[in-house]
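Continuing the series of single-chain predictions for the mutant panel. This is the parent chain; the variants come on the following pages.
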Amino acid sequence: MSGPLSGVRILEFTQIIAGPLGCMLLADQGAEVMKVEPLGGEPWRVYAQFMPLESKTYQSLNRGKQSIALDLNTAEAQAIVHRLVKDVDVVVSNYRPDVPARLGIDYETLRAIKPDLIYVDSTAFGRKGPWAMKPGYDIVAQGVSGFTAAGGRFDENGNPVLPGGTATADFATGYAIAWGTCAALYHKAKTGEGQLVETSLLVNALNFLGGSFMSLPAADELVRTAFLADAKAARERGEGYAEIVKRRQERLAVAQLGNIYYRNYLTKDGAIAVGNLSASLRQKMRDVLGIEYDRRDHDPAYNPRDPQTIEDGNALTARVEKMIAAETSEHWVELFEAAGVPCGELNFTEELDQHPQIIENGYVVHVDHDLSGPQSMVSPPHRMSATPPKVRSASPPLGRDTDAILASAGYTADQIAAFRASRAIG
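Parent structure:
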């Protein structure tokens, strides 16, 4: 077994996305991860099944793990966990704060058995406060954090939709789980001390919105302070969510007016992205486009609210959009790259596993699933020269490793059969 976490044993009590992703990343780094699932499988396993008890969503987030099926509502299953935890380094849970204690898998209970245990606890909104006991999924966390409003997208019926088209808060929290686990393992290696590590969907969504969440009076007058006043007045007038989002977008649009340098453009046959965050890069883009002057960089008295600035910004944006739309994506990428302008064609994820950039960097890995056969997946996110991560296996069928794990914990074949007969295990 390779990887920097080789020898680390993890007992996982997580479901859906955040916890499974975090533990999969730890498995890629060499940790032995024993995933505990209910007898019928965790919800993501049974969501959109393409064969009994197997879904693509589950398989994409649970590679490299062992599966043990336990009914944690039974005293027998709880006793099994209490025996297993004596020989593990880390427990990861993503239940609502009150659930682990009811199941006998909370930090205080398990720490009494294993004093140096690292317990990573991921919740929706944190363990304290008025939302602590609320159930919550990514869409709720994105909503209450302001992530959805920041995207400002609505469907054809006017309903708000997720801005990124993916479970941003969940995936961010998965990385936080893996990161927090590694930090706690490092501390334990230095001191021998375990600890409770906490994270949540909410705090990770807010971290992705750092600039908007941050209050800095000296810099906030143009956007944040004025928007808060607008929103308060709008609510007092009885305006709804959609109207307030529109006001926020209009205020942000003023700040970005005429910003031709950091955005997406439609081309003759597709679309491209350009990203120029320095004056020198903006000048390179102007050179390619034949633009000699832009008040944003050349006028010391630049004021985004000045009527002439607004008029000039609208005219410049329209000019560049028309120019770029007249040629192909390949044409613009070639020109911009030759000039040193950061750019790229907008792709579809489903096309990328065959792309030479992906293949040559080893960003796709191939594994065989016990039941569904060959599959390709995105690689671990790190390359390490001395302790390279490795994808050891596909996700496990439900309960595949139950007997082996219990036997390694000292249970006899007769005891295992009795547990199965009583439906404590699957």
